[in-house]
Automatic annotation (TrEMBL):
Listed transmembrane segments: 86-110, 116-137, 149-167, 225-258, 294-313, 325-345, 357-375, 381-402, 414-437, 443-462
Record's keyword annotation contains Cell membrane: yes
CDD domains found in the cross-reference section: MFS_MefA_like
One Pfam family recorded for the sequence: MFS_3
Membrane topology term: Multi-pass membrane protein
Compositional bias segments (type: Pro residues): 26-39
Protein name: MFS transporter
Coiled-coil residue spans: none
Species of origin: Frankia umida
InterPro entries: MFS_dom, MFS_trans_sf, TM_effector
Length: 480
């Protein structure tokens, strides 16, 4: 057989005409051969030049658009990007360490003789910087090379974890030292959260962004199952200091992943130049843009009152079902399992926007209400599996909606507001949820969470009826 792309010749029985047939280009499939014909008697004819066959218009790129859409809709589509594979692997290790530190921090505070109120204050110290300085962290993310900035924030968090480990290991830890270190971690998170979230799009681009965000949420919830289990074993074996030291080492996995990335494969962006008024410009832009304002307000309400599970579930376990710490752990594992399974299911969906987000918020409220009225512990656990799936669906859909709607020059500041709504609202929503659960019963705390989700869904529905919110085009971002 002749090589593709080279002309091939055939000779007919003694005929004076020579036919030249040009093979199709290599990128196109070969043309079907002509059916065999009976030999004709020799006829003298003048030489005729036969034009090469036309190139079929169907010779397109190897993957048809439908196939490409099918690939981008697959559950693990974003993992085709090497940089994102490195990132997600480092994140899994680091998040396991983070959950181990979360468990150990509570035990360390209580072992220092602190009360439950003091434990709440230490927890608030970790999230308060996100509430106060989160928007400015977004400004820093927009101004900086995000990959290098992540290396700095991850190193800072690792050093803070190492400090806790050394203080605990040497027996010199005091409550004020633990609170100060927790606040340092919060300061790092105020910059790290918007930077890390916006860096995802630089790795995978807008095509794979919804899938990548969901896989990132699945990774977080998988670590939510693995980390506490490892923490329990390490605390029993060598004490809480081992968890802090493991977490400090786990940040090395993220640093190695960031270092090994191929920067040429990142989706290029131009950092925003430093200028006065950039923080105010970001706030005005987010408020004027309906496709940003609606998800952010929804997250502010739902994040403050529907995601306070660390406050409500311990009370549900102890008072509603007369359980203990093992019951609480079982509830947490049920939510984590639902989040992993639900996240993998949501990963195939690419629908984002205010309407899908409102529908998911309504479903989230429904399963929260089911958890609030569950009559027995098995029914409660089944409801919490659904709650976990609904929670990851709402967060990942809202995150993708906000990122895709934001102007690239404003994306860091917008995602900082998203982090403030999700994490920074804990110092406000936690005490409210705790007071309702303590005064009216733990089931009332879950009912409050359901009401907040329904309010968010209703706000989304009302916004869709407004002309300003139905315009999909976001206004141009102010020059910053």
């Amino acid at each position: 057989m002749d090589s593709p792309g080279r002309p091939s010749s055939t000779t007919t029985p003694p005929a004076t005409a020579t036919l030249r047939v040009i093979s199709p280009p290599q990128a196109c499939p070969p043309l079907p051969a002509d059916p065999p014909q009976e030999a004709m008697p020799p006829v003298a004819v003048a030489p005729v030049a036969v034009a090469p066959p036309p190139v079929p218009p169907a010779c397109a790129p190897p993957a048809a658009p439908a196939a490409q859409r099918e690939q981008s809709n697959s559950t693990f589509a974003a993992l085709r990007v090497r940089n994102f594979r490195l990132f997600i692997a480092g994140q899994l290790v680091s998040l396991c360490g983070t959950w181990m530190q979360t468990i150990a921090l509570g035990w360390l505070v209580l072992s220092l003789g602190a009360s439950g109120t003091a434990l709440g204050l230490v927890t608030a110290a970790q999230f308060l910087p996100v509430l106060l300085f989160g928007p400015y962290g977004g400004v820093i993310a927009d101004r900086s090379d995000r990959r290098r900035l992540l290396m700095i924030t991850q190193t800072g968090s690792g050093l803070a974890a190492l400090t806790l480990g050394i203080l605990d290991l040497t027996g010199s830890a005091r409550l004020w030292m633990v609170a100060a270190t927790a606040m340092l971690i919060g300061l790092c998170n105020a910059v790290d959260n918007p930077t890390r979230q916006t860096f995802v799009q630089e790795m995978v681009g807008p095509e794979y962004l919804p899938n990548a965000i969901t896989l990132n949420s699945v990774t977080m919830n998988a670590a939510r199952i693995i980390g506490p289990a490892l923490a329990g074993a390490i605390i029993l074996g060598i004490g809480t200091a081992g968890c802090f030291l493991f977490n400090a080492a786990s940040f090395g996995a993220v640093l190695i992943a960031l270092r090994r990335m191929n920067t040429a494969e990142l989706h290029a962006r131009t950092p925003v130049h430093r200028a006065p008024g950039q923080l105010r410009a970001g706030l005005r832009y987010a408020w004027r843009t309906g496709t940003l304002r609606v998800p952010l307000v929804m997250m502010m309400v739902i994040g403050a009152l529907s995601y306070e599970f660390q406050v409500v579930l311990p009370l549900v376990a102890r008072e509603t079902f007369d359980g203990d710490a093992a019951t609480y752990s079982l509830m947490t594992a049920a939510m984590g399992s639902g989040a992993v399974v639900g996240g993998l299911a949501v990963a195939r969906r690419r629908r984002v926007g205010v309407r899908p987000l409102g529908l998911i918020a309504a479903v989230f409220g429904g399963v929260l209400l089911l958890a609030a009225i569950a009559p027995t512990l098995p029914v409660e656990l089944a409801a919490l599996v659904l709650v976990g799936a609904g929670s990851v669906a709402f967060i990942s859909t809202g995150n993708a909606t906000v990122q895709l709607a934001a102007d690239p020059a404003m994306r860091g500041r917008v995602m900082a507001l998203w982090s403030v709504a999700l994490l920074g609202s804990t110092p406000v929503g936690g005490p409210i949820a705790g007071w309702v659960a303590q005064s009216c019963g733990p089931r009332a705390g879950l009912a409050l969470a359901a009401v907040a989700a329904f309010v968010g869904a209703g706000y989304a529905l009302l916004s869709l009826r407004s002309r300003s919110s139905t315009d999909p085009a976001a206004p141009a971002a102010p020059s910053a």
